[in-house]
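Example record

Each entry pairs one chain with its bound ligand, manganese (II) ion.
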Amino acid sequence: MIIVMNNTATEEQIENVVSRIKQKGLEGTVSKGTEKTVIGAVGDERLLDPELLQSLPGVEQALSIVKPYKIVGREWHPNDTVVNVKGHLIGGDHIQIISGPCSVETPEQMKKSADGVKAAGVKLMRGGAFKPRSSPYSFQGAGLDGLDMFREAANNSGLPMVTELLDVRHLDAFLDKKVDVIQIGTRNMQNFELLKEVGKIDVPVILKRGMSATISEWLMAAEYIAIGGNHNIIFCERGIRTFETAYRNVLDVTAIPVLKKETHLPVIVDPSHAGGKAFMVPALSRAAIAAGADGLLVEMHPNPCEAWCDADQAINPDELKVLMGELSAIAKILGRTISD
Ligand code: PEP
Ligand code: MN
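Structure tokens for the complex follow.
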């Protein structure tokens, strides 16, 4: 960290900053220029609080020079992390598609969904049992019964189950049902207590981007999970809020190469909640894979017009199958594979 003192800083104020730096176990080296004095703090600068230093008399600015995140950063771990979900790999050369309905509705719907997922060659299935709806009058999800329905469909089809955890009070039920991947939704990206809890377990976590979160906030949210010991984290870009009203959210394709540079963890894309309409899903999916995403989370319903939640954005099983063919071709050009 570099601490810039203002022109009128006294010797005493400079000494005070140096002693604060030393108290945290870092070295403080003072460089006196013609106009300003600069203090370099050498050591683990994450131990220093720039805001606190900036509040000291005589300090003009405290500038961090290392990234605030550590475990999830590429600086710390240069090689790609490959997350293994029951033998299905995500990251590195491996692209993985996850598909299924927005919400778990009935055992029949889950069976038909699993059939559609398998017929398309997709290896992991999604479905929400607990739904974070904007209106309290909307369907809130089938809850614990939904988890049971999903578990049964997953067992019968052999597809690992991916489902959203909304509340820390449901974590034991998720572990009991052996949920294969826990999804943390956009509304909970900064629910730090929830993040700390999923950090303590060894179930892979999909961390969706908060709808107005910066890349840096998103990385720090992942760091909350990683610091607990769970490093099986997958980022999921799902569209961000902008001034545009013609679609539900704006898919931030730029986030893909930026995140891939900043983190070794896999990055996937949810084209469904980004566009909000089924007709946009194939184009956004192709763009995401072309831009380097390690996978997709796509809403598919056996009968979209009948879906209890997000009917407008669900593609049908036939559309998923066509999309898989297109994505395989794009992956091949990039020297990657849609993995088993
Ligand atoms: C979902 O995947 O069903 C969902 C609610 O997504 P998001 O958190 O991105 O809105
Ligand atoms: Mn949905």
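The two ends are 45 Å apart (CA to CA).
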